[in-house]
Amino acid sequence: MDLRQFIVDLLSLGSLYALLGLGFVVVYRTSRVLNFAHPGFVLLGAYLFVAVYRKVGESLPVTVAVMLALGATIGLATYLVVMRPMSGQSRIATIMVTVALLFILGAVVQVFWKGQTTFIPLPGSSVAWELAGQRVRMHDALLLGGATILLGGLLIFYRFSRLGIYMRAVAENAVLAARRGLNIDRIVALSWALAVALAFVAGPLAGAKAPISPSLIGITLKAFAVPLVGGLDSVKGLVPGALLVTSAELLTIEYFGSALAEAAPFVVLLVVMIARPWGLFGTPEELHRV
Amino acid sequence: MSDVAAGRTVNNGRRTSRSPYLKTSYESDLQLFDYTGLRVAAIALIVAGVLAFPALISGYSLNILNLALISVLGAVALQLLTGVAGQLSLGHAAFLAAGAFTGGALFFHLHVPFIVALIGGAAMAGLLGLLVAIPSVKLKGLYLAVTTMALHFVVIVLGREYQLYLQDSFGTTSDITLPNPSLGAFSLDTRLRWYYLLVAVIGLFLGVSANLMRSPFGRAWIAVRDRDIAAEAVGVNVRRYKYIIFTFSSALAGVTGVLWAYYIHVVNIENYKLFLSVKYLAMIIIGGLGSLLGAVLGALFVSLLPEVISYAIEAMDAPFYIANNKEQVEVAVFGVFIILFLIFEPEGLAGIWRRIKTYFLLWPLKYRPLEGGRRR
Fold this sequence. Notes:
Chain A has 290 residues and is mainly alpha-helical. In chain A, 71% of the residues lie in helices and 3% in strands. Chain B has a two-stranded antiparallel ribbon. A two-stranded antiparallel ribbon of chain B has the order 2-3. The interface between A and B is large, with 41 and 43 residues.
């Protein structure tokens, strides 16, 4: 098995999974809600990207800006219409609401785009380089670069920026944070805006690996294992989580065929859930706070 | 009647009639239902209605109703696991599939009769439930949901592999086909016969489940659901009861799976998507978590909703892009209903029923009168 090709695949697929998993972490880090609707937002973002790209005259920077704005608006709307009325209810109920939202999003996407396969117009679609004797496609580098920037950016955001610290405070103890003067409503709304905006960026980036089709939901569900393995409230846990899950999948494809590889991320997830339910870098009290 | 033992007389010393709110003997406390005249008459009426109902509807509707009844069985199984014992499970479709595949495989390879397929399906699904329970006793809430979801995907992959194996070694098509089953001399070849069988099985399931809920098992499960640490402190062996409920619920799900497979005459892994698990969860949430009546109402609601939507789309002469995407509209409306119920009616249909019942029971009063008050 070609080690260098394996490393390239590992890094690029791992970056994709980490990017997709990031959305779950952002929502969980602020409101302790497992956002099952994230795959739906990712798919919607991918399809919308193509539509917006064509509308704004094929300009990438404008499209990215529009997508971020759209994502923030839709995230805000989701919070106001669906998530805020659910505050105070049990965790099970909130999770079910996000699952229902996922199916609504899937149905909406199906109605408007009818399950067609589209190509995301990312730059450098046929560019590849020779690095240390290994062929690296520009798209793979794009994924790795995108993941590094976004994960790194969010790490810095959560650790050093005011808003990031506020978000972590709201997650840890919302009532106490409110007593200290934080506007919980606004902070949670912002976290949802951030999460969906991220989904709208991650979705199109997934187009670097393969054309976009409704199977993207399945891929995002596989990526779901990444934050669970790394720790649902940990951005830095996404890195080891992604590496573990991706190597499991790639090795399974190599030695057992691609049908069984569909289950590989979930097997890793199961093993970690049994051994350490809160993930490698997650905070342990999470288990009892449910 | 030992009202006199209370040391007081009511109604100026005259003999009182038995109050429905007071249990005055151990016997009456142990009864499952209140067998007062009115209640018995109502039950008899309902039973008669259920038995006579098929005469009123068309064959197509009977088919839909049978499928709805099968989902009632599955919903009761999930209600015991998630509503009563509090173990949130997204793996229900996997247990249904386990039952169906075991029953189908037993029929395909060994040509066993229907009863054996049922028992085999229940046993295998129960075993799978026990296996799932082993990692799950440590987990709660969303981690449990995620673990069961992961297990769902693993089971689906295994099911696909088995189907591929069948295709390669036996040259069959990708699914197993099942004929009409027969229980001894009683062959299930018409929808009407299926209807009566399903009603009987539902009656059995509900009876067993209602009894279980009144028993120490049920009380233990409710304790585990509400405050498992306190339950452990009081002496409930939380681990053991979790094992028991997972096994029992998945065995029931296995029976449902076999019944469904035989009813639609097909065993195919594509029928057991994650959406099916979510649908069952929706049934018990919409119906009301924790109540058996809720499971029945929720299952009927969710199963009949697509039909109602189709009918509404046609009747309303909807714009063409809705009519052409009926399936998506069903899914979307279904999602909207879940959200609406969760936001506005967290106790579900059973909660609504309870409120209606209380309203009529207390009419014209809005609240129960105080103890020792003059009324009653």
